Amino acid sequence: MKTQENFVLLADAYKYSHHKLYYPGTTKIYSYLESRGGQFDETTFFGLQYFLKYYLEGQVITKEKIDEAEEFLTQVFGRTDVFDRSKFDYILEKYNGRLPVRIKAVPEGTVVPVNNVLMTIENTDPECFWLSNFLETLLMQVWYPCTVATVSREVRKIVEEYFEETASEESKAGIDFVLNDFGFRGVSSVESAGLGGAAHLISFRGSDTLMGSMMAKRYYDAQKVYGLSVPATEHSVCTLLGEEGELEVFKHILKTFPTGVVACVSDSFDIFRACSEYWGTELKDLVLSRDGVLVIRPDSGDPVFTLLRVFDILFTKFGYTINKKGYKVLPPQVRVIQGDGVNVPAIRSIYGALKVNGISAENLVLGMGGALLQKVDRDTQKFAFKCSYAEINGKPVDVQKHPVELDTHGKLVQSFKKSKAGQLKLIRTDEGFQTVRKETPTGYEDQMITVFENGAIMNTSSFEEIKERAVVTAVQLIS
Description:
Domain Nicotinate/nicotinamide phosphoribosyltransferase: 177-405
Helix content: 25-40%
CATH architecture of the largest domain: Alpha-Beta Barrel
Pathway: Cofactor biosynthesis; NAD(+) biosynthesis; nicotinamide D-ribonucleotide from 5-phospho-alpha-D-ribose 1-diphosphate and nicotinamide: step 1/1
Largest sheet: 7 strands, antiparallel
Catalytic activity: beta-nicotinamide D-ribonucleotide + diphosphate = 5-phospho-alpha-D-ribose 1-diphosphate + nicotinamide + H(+)
InterPro entries: Aldolase_TIM, DUF5598, N/Namide_PRibTrfase, Nicotinamide_PRibTrfase, Nicotinate_pribotase-like_C
Strand content: 15-25%
Number of strands: 20
Radius of gyration: 26 Å
Family: Belongs to the NAPRTase family.
Mean pLDDT: 96
């Protein structure tokens, strides 16, 4: 499925003046993408393949699109000397509307420490020097799936850490389903749901965001549906008979799904009464006789204090065992899911509190919505797209900015926004990834590969390959 958007209009308005503003004689613009730091020390690269396939592959410029852009941009600028249709007519006539640029990038799923190059772009036709950074607007949007993939993977690291410390070995098979994506309704678009949802599925498989699995299949040739879910209630179900009918609704839910996993939001009126009097007393035998798991969901209140009280009640009512690591575990028919107020710091606090109170991490799964798919922005990992090299009147030129700024004491200091200079490559040594100049002899291969050239996609990654590259290892947990 190709986009219905007009490629010629997929840039910030000011970009259309740059073909005139670049210094006369410019024939090459070479730029790169990096994460300059941010909330996490490393970034999971993901999502570029979608943008290449959906927006850039094949013929993306036509006469009709240029005509539309000319009429539109004349009104945008209120003048006729900014947009120059001849620049796009040239690409249409010489390349049949295919883009004369080369893009190199690290293979998707690669986890790279911040402050390293992730992608480069350069024009392959000297007449189209302006095109490299014209594409910044669109290509920069890869920050979003990269950031969601990074957040999800960081949660995976936390979960694996606490499972290693407090959970039984057999329970580790369920880690794939500990963090569940509840973010579809909270994102800004269906496209965001697909990109963010697929990014989450690199590290986990629990998801209610169907578009994530669809994205993985359509653009990454996923061999199966990775996002899996279970029957679950919402408040419209559990409040249908009012407070006095909540117990009857709970009973109906258990009878409707007598086997398998079923999740039930239980805070509609009083989560503690629901756990103590309903699930733990009136329905206790029915719960324990099921060939499946009841997942009880609190959905309000402070996550840590609420969960500790809920577990205290459930341990009292249903009993518990002590696993080999010395932590309490509910009967296998009962588990808890926390889906409210969940973000990375909260997850660490929640599992830390469970550990301190002798409760195994295997008792709890998580649902994450806005904090996973929406409460991120380009500065979460400080993504930047900058020109680092040019050719002007036949001469190579290093391009770089290194601004100064005032610190809190009014002293001039180097800004973190200092950019890199020259043509770049990313090498991987025994010490890890390192960004160096392209001409630097290192004995190591460039980890970036050509993924797009002159309108054609040159290399692709399957979703299975991406998941394998992003796997969290025991070494990473220790570090």
